[in-house]
Write a structure and sequence with these properties.
The complex is a heterodimer of chains A (about 300) and B (about 240). Chain A has about 300 residues and is an alpha/beta fold. Chain A is built from eleven helices and 14 strands. The interface of A and B includes residues 97 and 98 of A.
Chain lengths: ~300, ~240
């Protein structure tokens, strides 16, 4: 659906993005992750045909964004970081305007507006002037305008920006609802839970360069911390450590009332081996959990250092 | 063309929904009415056609000033509010955006100009006037307004905010208006060129007197076309920034 190759954009002497290359398949929901100023918005604007790359190539659904922007614009729905809304219009009226602008046949406009309003939970404010809406509803109208013409590609730039926790959950549900539909979705954010829970795959960008891509688990594995096992064992600390020495690197997390809590670094699922080692040493196994590194710590590791990860 | 009309309809509806449009109409009517009473009707007794001619003269001034205020928001406001991205990311051509915006402004100006028609009608009721004179004067006002709005649209495409757009458009209009002064201090053939370029002096006065020349119509339409073409090129360049 999207093929990006060596995409570079300079603002004066400063490179906002540099040599960006990635592929996105049809139907995927992709999280575009990076700190502020990393180059997410620049990339989305180029894909949305509102910004010219300095060099490189971006192809959307077989059409180059520079040589065939009109064809690309027919296939995309773009929500910029500030939703582009006409405050004096009503919600339904605005969505009908956008649908017509993007080529929806007149006889289908009403149905498409209803469909977009239902997907984004705007039915009850169809007649309300946009100027009277709360920030959360304005964001929803922004998403609705991006999808009212059923585009093949949805580009959502920080859709959760400025939302309160309840609105965030609603926005997450909304984006999750787009999964499996006719859309491919590229959603940028620095709100990690939003990305973690809604996207199939992540693209992590730092200082204009792609530093990693893959699923959350893949990123963890690539960084050598794909998973760990937490174990609670009743017994003496030395005996417990000796029993688990052959399984993998072990860190003692705590010890209280004869119960030792440990963490075994384990990219693969080593729970059977850990269980056998503990029981085989005559110790009591109280708890055995497999965990993976949370997206937040992965994100911080990816965007902090310079040599920890490669695309 | 469908998208042009869509943009024009939305823009015109925005004019009619906000106070800004009504304030401009009210100001124009107030100033036109004041000048009409003080100068056209006042003073020594005049023939009806002279009163009408004076009315069109005052109205041409208010039309140009109003055009600056009407056109300053067309593109600069969208850029300020971020809504231009909606148009930029949609399958709309640059000339469709410019033409849609311009047509909405022209329609609004036409409504505003139509609202002044009671003044010539008053003269007509109390004196003797030719309908042709009234029609020629209003055609002149619309053509002058069209050229001024197109220049304003160009200024609005250039500027990052509405104030700057108004200043730029105002400067361009004054430059075109004062071409006749340059014509007076330059030698031929340059003086002929400046005289022909002047926005008001040579081209509006015939309309004001009830005379329609094709060359004046062609002049105003040419200024409109050139300014809109320039606005389109600016938008093309800005769309990708």
């Amino acid at each position: 659906m999207i093929h990006v190759e060596g995409l570079t954009r300079y603002y004066g002497g400063h490179a906002a993005i540099r040599g960006l290359s990635f592929e996105i398949q049809r139907g995927e929901v992709i999280g575009f992750l990076g700190l502020n100023g990393a180059g997410k918005t620049t990339t989305l604007k180029i894909l949305g045909c509102v910004l010219l790359p300095t060099s490189g190539r971006a192809v959307v659904d077989g059409h180059d964004v520079v040589s065939h922007p009109h064809e690309v614009r027919q296939r995309i729905g773009f929500l910029p970081d500030t939703p582009p809304l006409y405050d004096e219009m009503g919600v339904g009226e605005f969505l009908a305007f956008v649908a017509r602008l993007r080529g929806v046949p007149s006889r289908e406009v009403s149905a498409r507006v209803t469909e977009a309003e239902e997907k984004t939970g705007l039915r009850d404010v169809d007649d309300a002037p946009i100027s009277s809406l709360s920030h959360g509803y304005r964001q929803r109208v922004g998403v609705a305008q991006a999808l009212v013409h059923r585009p093949a590609l949805l580009l959502l730039d920080e859709p959760g920006s400025g939302l309160d926790p309840r609105q965030m959950v609603e926005m997450r549900t909304l984006i999750q609802g787009l999964r499996g539909a006719e859309h491919t979705v590229l959603v940028s954010s620095h709100l990690l839970p939003e990305i973690s829970q809604t996207c199939d795959r992540l693209l992590v960008i730092k200082d204009g360069e792609l530093v990693a891509q893959g699923t959350e688990a893949e990123l963890g594995q690539r960084l050598g911390s794909g998973g760990f096992i937490e174990v609670e064992v009743r017994g003496e600390r030395e005996r417990v450590l000796a029993a688990l020495a052959g399984v993998g690197p072990v860190h003692v997390m705590g010890e209280a009332e004869g119960v030792v809590t440990l963490r075994v670094e384990a990219p693969a699922d080593l729970r059977p081996g850990v269980a056998r080692a503990v029981v085989g040493a005559g110790l009591e196994l109280l708890r055995l959990d497999r965990g993976t590194e949370k997206l937040e710590s992965l994100f911080l590791r990816l965007t902090r250092g310079g040599d920890e990860a490669a695309p | 063309m469908m998208r042009t009309m869509l943009i024009a309809r939305r823009e015109l509806a925005a004019w009619l929904r906000t106070f800004q449009g009504y304030i401009i109409i009210a100001m124009v009517l107030a100033v036109d009415g004041l000048l009409f009473n003080a100068f056209a009707l006042g003073g020594v007794s005049k023939r009806s056609s002279e009163v009408l001619s004076l009315f069109f003269q005052f109205s041409s001034g208010t039309t140009m000033v109003a055009s600056v205020f009407i056109s300053m928001r067309l593109l600069a406001e969208e850029r300020q509010a971020g809504t231009l991205l909606l148009l930029y990311s949609s399958p709309v051509k640059d000339h469709e955006i410019v033409l849609g915006k311009f047509l909405s402004a022209l329609a609004f100006l036409a409504l505003m100009t139509l609202a002044t028609v009671f003044m010539p009608l008053l003269v007509m009721v109390h004196g003797k006037l030719s309908l042709g004179h009234i029609a020629a004067g209003y055609l002149g006002l619309l053509l002058l307004g069209s050229a001024s709005l197109a220049i304003g649209t160009f200024g609005s495409a250039l500027a990052r905010n509405q104030v700057l757009a108004a200043v730029l458009s105002g400067c361009m209009l004054v430059a075109l208006l004062t071409c006749w002064l340059l014509a007076r201090i330059t030698e031929q053939p340059l003086s002929d060129v400046f005289s022909a370029l002047a926005l008001w002096n040579q081209h509006f006065q015939p309309f004001q007197a009830g005379v329609v020349h094709v060359r004046d119509i062609v002049y105003y339409l040419s200024v409109t076309y050139v300014a809109l073409f320039a606005a389109t090129r600016v938008l093309e360049a800005r769309r990708w920034r």
